[in-house]
């Protein structure tokens, strides 16, 4: 049968006796239920129309609220499909789905109603899963806003509403079946009337109303037991008094009551049809109509399951009881995440796969509670299952340690997210293993779990960070590697997470159990005891009470936790201020000297952060900020560091929030400021920080890294976003204080700022990748802190930190994967050596610090000695010049004498050869004379 059409013989449209209250009836189906649901969504979208399809939300200033509005305009206006869009664009637009209207969500979903998740399309299916989630949520608010329904009840009601629209679409296409604009259904003992054209619930109308009797169930001929949709539609009179089967009976407790035996009236034996042209297969229509007439004529008391539930069933189909395998995957994906917590697989009663065909003997039926659809769990339906033999009720077996209820809040949250993850990835067969997985990986193994899942399902790192952040409990220990967590920190977190009530069955998983109050209580005790490890663990995700923040910061910085401990510090600050007043008074008038130069530099660098804050704009507060900076520079004999005035302003704002006077807050802020400025690498621009952030960004979001590099903006994130430790980035002062809670609670202190910058870029990757010009990218990046949700930013940054710190463990898998072993991260063996040498390196660092201070003192003494010697140098200049002149003359005379001696030696060396030549000439002349004489 074609989707969206109604093809049946005319004899199947039956006119029933009006005295029974039924005007007309017809059979709908059978067809796959996922097809019926898709047609129902299309019918709802057509009923709502296209009004407001391109009306997107805006801020009060008139600017668009959506970060990727252009992407949705292309989907809704030009008819673009997701398969034609880049994966990065789809991932970036996913955060805006929750801000769309019901009309827009249904329009997007109906255009992609035939999409299926496979291969590289998983990220796009994640986008469609969010569309389904928020579409069903808005539809539920439109219809059942006044009803007090549990999540499971709402899921059943939404399924029924969607199928009613599918049935109405088919009935309107059948000329032989009269129709109506109203549909009747019962929910918790009340008859509700759905007006199809307006998609609203109304009062009981006058005239005929449509209702249905469901005979849906799993297909016995399908090995996967996919659900088949089959309804008997009834056009009834006197709808206000008509009794229909209640979707959620009032007097039943789903998944709580035990199985009970209910007698069943013997049914007729039905022989499966062998006619290939028979559209209903093994359904005996005449038998069903006979049973319908018998059931309507009996005067029986309605049961909780409805007036026609016991005597009216479809003998040709197996009862509405599904197997453990997934049925109707489309609807599971559509509604599983829309209404709260999942139902563990173990709570669903296993079906009997044998289909009863012999009804001659009296049998018994298990009256099982309905199991509404959940995240990947099959729906038990509404039709009872008939086993071969009577089944006696038995007590439920006690749950094992691995499959029992969650032990604490962290395990409960992880179960919820894992069920949603497996349903979205069509891995419903693994839902039964979720309790074991959570029991094994919850806690320290959480980053390892999501690293393995991300590698297995080829998730991009931003998506893996999102899953890890969502599954983290309110308190995390991600700032330490798994094997290096201090015992005090672990005990503190366990004390906070303790007391989570057992969560089983269909009860909603409690994710807000007053954790903030417990964190505050345990944190106060840790601050009083100066337990720094416990304070770091409790404050890493933020301080729950702003009044506690001053003591938290003082403890983390080693200044002092309680006010009593600060008395000595405040006295020291007063004495230091008095000792510096004389030196400052000499130069303040003329603006000369060291203090004068500091004041001039401070005035040349006005505070650029929070100019509208009422506290920081006070004159006495501005003077206190100047005092903190000038006295720190004078005490350290240091120059003024650009941006340090905003850091001092933030610290003073926090210290004044604990009830201290301005003078006390100034003293406390001075000592905290001194510790913070000790690590000036993160205060100003640092080439090393630029390199670290660039390396992290390449690993976690390569498209954004390439975008910044192509526009020459690679240095902008560290220089702008983390400027002056985020005080000049554009965050509100409250948001900046929340970021500092995590920065100071990290045992590696300001290294966490690198993770915050990378996380902020990932959260705004949609806007960044949508820009084409350098100016657009720079403006988007600069505006990101003003639009940031700081708690969500901190939580995602904790996830990035967890992935990075787990690499310190030599056995951990490297995730996100780096490009090569020589670039990015060092090898695991190197990390192992680093962990082994860590104590020695720490000791060497301490010795180096002492040696550095000693060397500084020696250099100072040497400078003073050199200065005194330089003052006496002119006295010796005359004698030095005279000695030099005498030495030069002596050297010149010696050189002349040496030259004459050399010439004499050369002359003597040449004399013997000359004498030998003269003697040879004389002998030659004698020989010639002797030769001439005999001749004469």
What descriptive keywords fit this protein?
single chain, 936 residues, mainly alpha, 4 domains, 5-stranded antiparallel sheet, 50% helix, disordered C terminus
In summary, what is this structure?
With 936 residues, this protein is mainly α. The chain is built from 31 helices and ten strands. Residues 350-364 have a biased composition (Acidic residues).
Mind sketching the topology for me?
Blueprint: E1 14-15, E2 22-32, H1 33-48, H2 69-77, H3 87-93, H4 102-111, H5 122-144, H6 151-172, E3 182-187, E4 190-195, E5 200-202, E6 209-214, E7 217-218, E8 227-236, E9 261-263, H7 285-297, H8 329-335, E10 364-366, H9 409-424, H10 434-441, H11 446-456, H12 461-471, H13 487-497, H14 515-528, H15 532-539, H16 549-556, H17 563-588, H18 593-604, H19 619-636, H20 644-655, H21 662-676, H22 687-700, H23 702-710, H24 716-721, H25 733-745, H26 752-763, H27 765-769, H28 774-787, H29 790-805, H30 828-872, H31 877-935
Antiparallel strand pairs: 1-2, 2-8, 3-4, 4-5, 6-8, 7-8, 9-10
Helix pairs in contact: 1-4, 1-6, 4-5, 9-10, 11-12, 12-29, 13-14, 13-15, 14-15, 15-25, 17-18, 17-21, 18-19, 19-20, 19-21, 20-21, 22-23, 22-26, 26-29
How would you explain this protein's 3D organization?
With 936 residues, the chain is mostly helical. Helix content is 50%, strand content 6%. Helix 4 crosses helix 5 and helix 19 packs across helix 20 (644-655). The termini are far apart. Mean pLDDT is 73; it is low at 1-13, 252-394, 500-513, 588-592, 820-838, 865-877, 912-916 and 932-936. It holds the Pfam family RabGAP-TBC. Residues 350-364 have a biased composition (Acidic residues). GO terms for molecular function: GTPase activator activity. Residues 915-925 have a biased composition (Basic and acidic residues).
């Amino acid at each position: 049968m074609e989707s969206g059409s109604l093809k049946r013989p005319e004899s199947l449209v039956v006119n029933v006796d009006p005295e029974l209250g039924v005007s007309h009836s017809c059979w709908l189906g059978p067809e796959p239920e996922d097809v019926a649901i898709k047609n129902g969504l299309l019918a709802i979208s057509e009923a709502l129309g296209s009004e407001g399809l391109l009306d997107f939300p805006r801020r009060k200033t008139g600017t668009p609220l959506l970060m990727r509005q252009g992407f949705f305009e292309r989907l809704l206006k030009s008819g673009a499909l997701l398969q034609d869009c880049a994966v990065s664009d789809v991932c970036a637009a996913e955060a805006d789905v929750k801000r769309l209207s019901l009309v827009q969500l249904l329009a997007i979903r109906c255009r992609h109603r035939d999409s299926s998740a496979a291969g590289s399309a998983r990220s796009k299916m994640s986008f469609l899963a969010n569309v389904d989630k928020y579409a069903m949520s808005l539809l539920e608010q439109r219809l059942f806003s006044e009803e007090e329904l549990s999540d499971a009840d709402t899921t059943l009601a939404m399924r029924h509403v969607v199928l009613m629209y599918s049935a109405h679409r088919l009935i309107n296409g059948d000329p032989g079946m009269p129709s109506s604009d109203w549909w009747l259904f019962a929910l918790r003992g009340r008859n509700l009337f759905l007006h199809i054209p307006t998609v609203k619930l109304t009062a009981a109308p006058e005239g005929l109303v449509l209702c249905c009797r469901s005979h849906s169930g799993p297909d016995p001929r399908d090995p996967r037991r996919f659900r088949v949709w089959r309804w008997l539609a009834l056009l009834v009179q006197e709808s206000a008094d008509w009794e229909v089967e209640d979707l959620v009976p009032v007097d039943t407790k789903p998944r709580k009551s035990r199985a009970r035996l209910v007698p069943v009236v013997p049914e007729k034996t039905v022989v499966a049809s062998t006619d290939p042209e028979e559209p209903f297969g093994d359904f005996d229509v005449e038998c069903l109509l006979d049973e319908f007439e018998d059931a309507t004529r009996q005067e029986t008391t309605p049961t909780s399951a409805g007036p026609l539930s016991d005597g009216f069933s479809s003998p040709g189909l197996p009862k509405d009881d599904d197997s453990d395998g997934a049925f109707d995957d489309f609807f599971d994906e559509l509604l599983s995440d829309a209404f709260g917590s999942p139902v563990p697989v173990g709570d669903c009663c296993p079906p009997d796969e044998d289909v009863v065909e012999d009804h001659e003997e009296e049998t018994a039926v298990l009256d099982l509670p309905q199991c509404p659809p959940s995240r990947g769990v099959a729906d038990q339906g509404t039709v009872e299952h008939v086993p071969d033999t009577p089944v006696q009720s038995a007590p439920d077996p006690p749950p094992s340690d691995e499959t029992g209820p969650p032990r604490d809040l962290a395990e409960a949250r992880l179960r919820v997210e894992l069920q949603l993850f497996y349903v979205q990835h069509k891995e419903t067969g693994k839902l039964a293993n979720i309790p074991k997985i959570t029991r094994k990986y919850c806690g320290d193994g959480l980053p390892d779990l999501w690293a393995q899942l991300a590698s297995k399902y080829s998730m991009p790192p931003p998506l893996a960070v999102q899953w890890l952040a969502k599954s983290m409990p309110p308190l995390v220990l991600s700032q330490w590697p798994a094997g290096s967590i201090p015992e005090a920190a672990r005990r503190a977190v366990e004390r906070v997470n303790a007391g989570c009530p057992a969560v089983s069955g269909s009860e909603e998983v409690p994710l807000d159990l007053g954790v903030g109050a417990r964190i505050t209580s345990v944190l106060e005790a840790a601050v009083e005891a100066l337990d720094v490890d416990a304070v770091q663990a409790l404050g890493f995700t933020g301080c729950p009470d702003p009044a506690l923040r001053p003591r938290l910061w003082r403890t983390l910085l080693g200044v002092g936790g309680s006010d009593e401990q600060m008395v000595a510090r405040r006295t020291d600050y007063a004495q230091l201020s008095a000792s510096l007043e004389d030196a400052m008074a000499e130069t303040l008038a003329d603006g000369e000297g060291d203090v004068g130069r500091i004041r001039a530099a401070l005035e040349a660098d006005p505070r650029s952060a929070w100019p509208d804050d009422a506290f920081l704009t006070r004159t006495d507060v501005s003077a206190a900020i100047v005092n903190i900076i000038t006295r720190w520079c004078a005490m350290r004999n240091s120059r003024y560091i650009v941006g340090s005035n905003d850091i001092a302003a933030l610290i003073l704002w926090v210290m004044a929030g604990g009830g201290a006077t301005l003078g006390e807050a100034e003293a406390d802020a001075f000592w905290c400021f001194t510790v913070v400025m000790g690590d000036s690498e993160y205060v100003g621009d640092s080439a090393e920080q630029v390199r670290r952030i660039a390396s992290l960004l390449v690993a976690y979001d390569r498209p954004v890294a390439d975008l910044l590099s192509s526009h020459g903006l690679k240095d902008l994130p560290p220089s702008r976003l983390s400027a002056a430790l985020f005080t000049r980035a554009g965050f509100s002062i409250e948001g900046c204080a929340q970021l500092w809670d995590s920065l100071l609670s990290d045992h590696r202190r300001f290294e966490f700022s690198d993770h915050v910058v990378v996380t902020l870029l990932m959260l705004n990757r949609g806007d960044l990748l949508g820009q084409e010009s350098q100016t657009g990218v720079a403006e988007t990046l600069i505006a990101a802190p003003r639009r940031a949700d700081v708690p969500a930013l901190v939580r995602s940054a904790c996830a990035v930190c967890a992935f990075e710190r787990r690499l310190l463990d030599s056995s951990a898998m490297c995730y996100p994967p780096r490009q090569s072993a020589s670039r990015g991260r060092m090898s695991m063996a190197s990390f192992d050596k680093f962990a082994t040498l860590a104590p020695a390196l720490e000791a060497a660092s301490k010795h180096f610090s002492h040696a550095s201070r000693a060397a500084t003192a020696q250099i100072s003494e040497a400078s003073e000695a050199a200065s005194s010697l330089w003052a006496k140098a002119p006295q010796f200049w005359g004698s030095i010049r005279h000695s030099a002149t005498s030495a030069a003359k002596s050297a010149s005379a010696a050189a002349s004498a040496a030259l004459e001696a050399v010439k004499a030696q050369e002359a003597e060396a040449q004399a013997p050869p000359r004498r030998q030549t003269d003697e040879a000439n004389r002998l030659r002349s004698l020989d010639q004379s002797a030769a001439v004489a005999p001749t004469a």
